[in-house]
Design brief:
The complex is a heterodimer of chains A (152) and B (141). Chain A is mainly α. Chain A is 66% helix and 0% strand. Chain A contains 7 helices and no strands. By secondary structure, chain B is mainly alpha-helical. Chain B has one domain. In chain B, 67% of the residues lie in helices and 0% in strands. Chain B has 6 helices and no strands. The longest helix of chain B has 23 residues. Chain B starts with a helix and ends with a helix. The relative contact order of chain B is 0.12. The mean pLDDT of chain B is 95. The chains are: A mainly alpha (152), B mainly alpha (141). The interface between A and B is large, with 122 and 118 residues.
């Protein structure tokens, strides 16, 4: 089940939960990540969809939240990971095309692994729980298909 | 305007995001390879990460509104209901295909940049493009 051990997974998950929980305790905000993307686009995209208050009015904290993600991971890399840089071997086309589909799908669905998977499940919302089962299924199928076609 | 002002809320978001990002790096979920190991059913660590995070979040979401009248810097605890609709599930299915292809989702794509994994910029660009296309052609508030 856990060839590399399980402690780091549980400890990391608890940290992630404490991050989402701290945001809620301090500000009352729900810390899904995928809304950050249309919120960032509201800086440049003039289309009325992106100029909605939902994205413009939350832009300041969503972008700081995203900056925090980078900083926290950087702190880990320097402090615990002894500065070892990891560069993925997944081909760039998969990172990009997968990104396009993940971005499109998350925004259509109204959440991603954090919005549905952590905040949605955390607040026991049935649509989110079902959404997680759906994306786990298609992700597992896709990863197997990609491997069968000679990928990672 | 939230209590405590804009700067306080931004600092709170930065700190919360940093804890989140630290956890993603600690759990190795910033690495596409780790996510793909789970999706290929070789290492079930991701379930512990998501379960641990959802568990802690769930306890906090449940207890705090019963304990406090409001958040430290805000006026009320927000909720974000999800809906039983075709969009939710079609979107989730498409999201899963992308996640299975790239091995990163919107959080780790950004957090991974902090570990020096620069090719993830391709994923961040892709997610931005996907979010833009979604808003342009299927945007609904």
């Amino acid at each position: 089940m856990f060839p590399s051990g399980w402690h780091q997974y549980l400890a990391g998950g608890v940290c992630v939960g404490l991050g989402v929980g701290l945001l809620f305790a301090l500000t009352g905000l729900i810390g899904g990540v995928s809304t950050m993307y249309p919120s960032a686009l509201s800086l440049v995209a003039g289309h009325p969809f992106f100029q909605h208050e939902k994205f413009v009015a939350t832009r300041h904290w969503r972008l700081m939240y995203g900056l925090g993600l980078i900083l926290g991971a950087a702190v880990y890399t320097v402090a615990r990971g002894r500065g070892t840089v990891f560069v993925t071997a997944v081909p760039v086309w998969r990172l990009f095309v997968g990104g396009v589909l993940a971005g499109f799908g998350a925004r259509l669905s109204g959440g991603c692994t954090s919005g549905h998977g952590i905040c949605g499940i955390g607040s026991l919302q049935k649509p989110s729980i079902l959404a997680v089962l759906v994306f786990l299924t298609t992700a597992i199928l896709t990863a197997h298909a990609a491997r069968a076609l000679g990928g990672h | 305007m939230p209590r405590g002002g804009l700067w306080a809320v931004m600092a709170a978001a930065l700190l919360s995001g940093a804890l989140f990002g630290f956890g993603l790096a600690l759990s190795t979920m910033v690495r596409p390879e780790s996510v793909l190991q789970f999706l290929l059913l070789k290492d079930f660590g991701l379930l512990l990460v998501m379960g641990g995070a959802a568990g802690v979040t769930g306890v906090i979401y449940f207890i705090l509104p019963r304990l406090l009248s409001g958040p430290v810097l805000g006026h009320h605890f927000e909720t974000h209901p999800s809906h039983f609709s075709a969009r939710t599930f079609v979107g989730a299915a498409i999201f899963g295909v992308g996640w299975g292809l790239a091995g990163v989702c919107p959080g780790p794509a950004v957090a991974g940049l902090g570990t020096g994994d620069w090719p993830l910029l391709a994923s961040v660009a892709g997610i931005l493009l996907g979010a833009w296309l979604q808003g342009l052609f299927f945007g609904k508030h």
